């Protein structure tokens, strides 16, 4: 067997009702169509010649939306169907799969004799003589219970065909993030050049069943956080409440250490806590001996009550002068983690609407320019982005509203200087000390022990200090061209699955 190179989904799997006038898709069909869209496996839809015109129009519209093919399937002309698919998709190595809800033995025999695989969606309550599980030897005819099982079934078949050198990665993240990665070609069901197969894990199916043949799990666990309780306890793991599905995954991994996690859940806890990250960044001081520039974290203060009487004195002791930027201590995973404020007057704190506990952070004048760095395995990339203006510009903007705190959501919009948006990126690039930031990136990788993470650097006007103002886990690194980013991403995951230690990285300019 040579793996699955193309899939044809029968109309009976996709259509929800028998209503010929107002046909619709079943929910599981929508899920499957999305998963196959960027799988790097040819996908088509088949229907019989007697299907009603409204249903045909719906299927053709779905095919157009997802860039799929449509094929007419006639029981009396199966050879024509096979020839049409082969002509449309080519004859490269591998097998085509026809996924149906029912079949006739003579049809199945003809397709199997042509080298096709047949997958049958078993009706609820119906007992079949063959049911697919990893390791099944009868692979020409496979039965599944739910459409959601199909991507994992294909994953298992492809791994079996390609041999032990291929590693499978199950991934979990919110749909919008998954699509951002998938449409860049990051999650193919066919093996990548370095031997990885990707399959989405689904909380609607038993996690233990899905992970039987998975070599590693790539997760964005922060997408599955329900609550984070900040307290004085140092045991951060007990502060985070995950969805039931994520808890099931964690339990499985706890008892199956051979299933690697990218990255261990305990390793991402520091990036959930802005206080912890600030404390970690204090260790950057040890990197400043061999460079003219200095890299550091911003000055900061944790606040549990904006009305505490000596707050102004505490801010001064922490080397914090106005304006300040105020952020929730919880850095991600909850709805208001990105609700921030820039404060211009000390007496504004008493009525400040930022979730507590909070981190008051130094506002660094940085000429509206931010450097976003991405550490992907042993490689480092960066992009130059526009950022918030200097304090004097912010104050002018705030004077129109009597210097009231400037509230914003950092994921949606940032206050910008509309009159000072034109700066040369070449000039910006020359300002940054690449060797110093490379040292910092490698140091952070060792301390955090993360495979893929990002951090933001601003350069302070006057001093030239390189200030790391944010650290985040599994960023999209969307500014890096796909042809560079995705192979690097695959290499980083493969090294992690193989247990190799990354060498010191250098920034790719």
Automatic annotation (TrEMBL):
InterPro entries: Inositol_tetrakis-P_1-kinase (IPR008656), InsP(3)kin_ATP-grasp (IPR040464). GO terms for biological process: inositol trisphosphate metabolic process. GO terms for cellular component: cytoplasm. Transmembrane segments: none annotated. GO terms for molecular function: ATP binding; inositol-1,3,4-trisphosphate 5-kinase activity; inositol-1,3,4-trisphosphate 6-kinase activity; inositol-3,4,5,6-tetrakisphosphate 1-kinase activity; magnesium ion binding. Its EC number is 2.7.1.159. Keywords: ATP-binding, Kinase, Magnesium, Metal-binding, Nucleotide-binding, Transferase. Residues 293-482 form the Inositol 1,3,4-trisphosphate 5/6-kinase ATP-grasp domain. Its cofactor is Mg(2+). Coiled coil: none annotated. It comes from the Eukaryota. Monomer. Belongs to the ITPK1 family. This is inositol-1,3,4-trisphosphate 5/6-kinase. It comes from Anisodus acutangulus.
């Amino acid at each position: 067997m040579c793996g699955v190179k193309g899939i044809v989904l029968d109309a009976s799997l996709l259509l929800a009702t028998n209503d010929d006038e107002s046909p619709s898709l079943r929910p599981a069909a929508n899920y499957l169509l999305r998963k196959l869209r960027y799988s790097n496996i040819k996908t088509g839809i088949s229907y019989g010649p007697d299907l009603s015109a409204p249903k045909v129009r719906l299927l053709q519209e779905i095919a157009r939306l997802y860039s799929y093919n449509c094929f007419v399937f006639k029981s009396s002309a199966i050879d024509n169907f096979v020839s049409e698919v082969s002509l449309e998709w080519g004859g490269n190595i591998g097998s085509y799969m026809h996924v149906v809800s029912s079949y006739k033995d003579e049809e199945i025999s003809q397709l199997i004799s042509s080298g096709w695989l047949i997958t049958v969606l078993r009706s609820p309550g119906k007992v079949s003589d063959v049911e697919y599980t990893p390791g099944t030897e009868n692979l020409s005819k496979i039965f599944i219970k739910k459409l959601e099982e199909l991507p994992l079934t294909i994953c298992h078949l492809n791994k079996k065909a390609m041999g032990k050198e291929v590693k499978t990665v199950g991934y979990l993240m919110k749909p919008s993030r998954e699509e951002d990665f998938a449409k860049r070609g990051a999650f193919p069901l066919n093996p990548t050049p370095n031997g990885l197969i990707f399959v989405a894990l689904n909380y609607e199916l038993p996690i233990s069943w899905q992970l039987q043949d998975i070599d590693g799990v790539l997760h964005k666990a922060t997408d599955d956080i329900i609550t984070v309780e900040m307290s004085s306890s140092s045991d951060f793991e007990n502060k985070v409440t995950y969805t039931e599905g994520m808890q099931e995954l964690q339990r499985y991994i706890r008892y199956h250490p051979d299933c690697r996690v990218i990255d261990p859940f305990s390793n991402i806890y520091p990036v959930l806590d802005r206080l912890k990250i600030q404390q970690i960044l204090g260790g950057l001081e040890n990197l400043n001996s061999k460079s003219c520039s200095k890299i550091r974290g911003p000055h900061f203060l944790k606040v549990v009550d904006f009305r505490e009487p000596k707050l102004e004195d505490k801010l001064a002791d922490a080397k914090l002068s106005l304006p300040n930027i105020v952020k929730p201590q919880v850095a991600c995973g909850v709805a208001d983690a990105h609700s921030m404020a820039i404060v211009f007057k000390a007496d504004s704190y008493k009525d400040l609407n930022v979730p507590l506990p909070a981190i008051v952070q130094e506002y660094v004048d940085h000429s509206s320019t931010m450097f976003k760095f991405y550490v992907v395995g042993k490689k480092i990339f960066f992009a130059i982005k526009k950022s918030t203006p200097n304090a004097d510009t912010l104050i002018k903007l705030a004077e129109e509203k009597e210097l009231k705190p400037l509230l914003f959501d950092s994921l949606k919009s940032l206050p910008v200087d509309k009159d000072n948006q034109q700066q040369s990126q070449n000039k910006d690039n020359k300002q940054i000390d690449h060797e110093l930031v490379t040292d910092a990136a490698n140091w952070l990788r060792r301390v955090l022990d993360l495979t893929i993470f990002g951090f933001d650097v601003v350069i302070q006007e006057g001093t030239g200090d390189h200030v790391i103002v944010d650290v985040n886990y599994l960023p999209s690194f969307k500014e890096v061209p796909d042809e560079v980013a995705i192979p690097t991403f695959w290499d980083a995951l493969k090294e992690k699955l193989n247990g190799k230690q990354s060498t010191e990285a250098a920034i790719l300019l």
